[in-house]
Amino acid sequence: MDTLVRTESSALTDSVSAISWASIAAGAIVAAAVSLALFALGAGLGLASVSPWAGSGVSATTFKNAAGVYLVVVAVMSSALGGYLAARLRTKWTGIHTNEVFFRDTAHGFIAWAFATVLTASVLAAAVTHIVSGAASGVPPATAQASSFNPSQVFVDRLFRTDQAATTPAATSGDNEGPRAEVLRLWTSSFSENNDLVAADRTYVARLVAAQTGISQAEAEKRVNDVITEAKAAADRARSGAAKLAFWITAALLFGAFAASLAAVEGGQLRDGTWQERRLIPRPW
Fold this sequence. Notes:
- This protein is 75% helix and 0% strand.
- By secondary structure, the protein is mainly alpha-helical.
- It folds into 2 domains: 19-144 and 241-272, no CATH class; 149-236, no CATH class.
- The longest helix is centred in the last third of the chain and has 56 residues, at 217-272.
- It is elongated, with a radius of gyration of 30 Å.
- The two termini are 24 Å apart.
- Residues 1-12, 141-147 and 164-173 have low confidence and may be disordered.
């Protein structure tokens, strides 16, 4: 009958925590700092690549795709560096099977990546909040009012737009603030629910537009339909852009976690002197 003999060394090892928080914190802080530096560099490159002039600068699609790829590259580079340091700076475990060491190094890299991700998100959120609050307190009242602008007002302005040849006394007297405010309320409430105007509101808005602009009822209904279609297209572009950004962020997080774990295995094996010619596998007994 076989007996399990526990040596003093193995018993001592079991009583020691497998996590080296100091090395994890060091790797996470380095990863967060590198991420912020690379984000600042990416912001500068992005501003230098766009231009308001036609025919110069990159297109919007190219800019969005390049920004997404750069986000993934930043995540991989910073996470790999943080995971490598988290495992390379740890203390050496003695009397532990190499498979267990392999797992612990991977866990150190993954935890360092998670710590760095939370730290970077907190720093970026605090920085953005500080910048926005500082800008809001320093702007003049007219600019502050413009910053609280409702995007739906643009579509309402297009509904009540008048041509100089079709100007009517009602349109030039400035007495259309009431109808405009009413249409804005209808527009905001309807589009927040189903991205469209209900049939009754659509007919009513067309009558208001016809009365205020001097165009016929048929032309007013066509204008309402055209503006609604344009508003739907703008909402669809915003939804598509938000979805692509979410996918790029997810890809960056996944690639960052993998890079941190992989680099931590390399750093741990270099720390223990078990690096096998770039083969990330545990060394057998």
